[in-house]
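Q: Structure tokens for this one, please.
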Amino acid sequence: MVLLRVIMLAKSLLTQQDRQLLLEARDILDELLETEEVLRDKTLMKSIRQSRRDLKAGRVYSLAQLKQKLRKQGKL
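A: Here is the predicted structure, written as tokens:
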């Protein structure tokens, strides 16, 4: 009951624009926390760096090439 009153009070004090800004701020904070998680994961960051080197060196496949390769190996 108290929570419902708090929600109703917040709705009456905040404009729709204020509520929208709060939602956007929450989304940005969620994204920042996810980014921090990735940056702290040493194994994942090592894999990302290796993937970038592979991309620069041209060691990549198109989706069609990958499917063809997997079919030849009997994995698709």
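A few notes: Residues 24 and 30 are 10 Å apart (CA to CA). The two ends are 56 Å apart (CA to CA).
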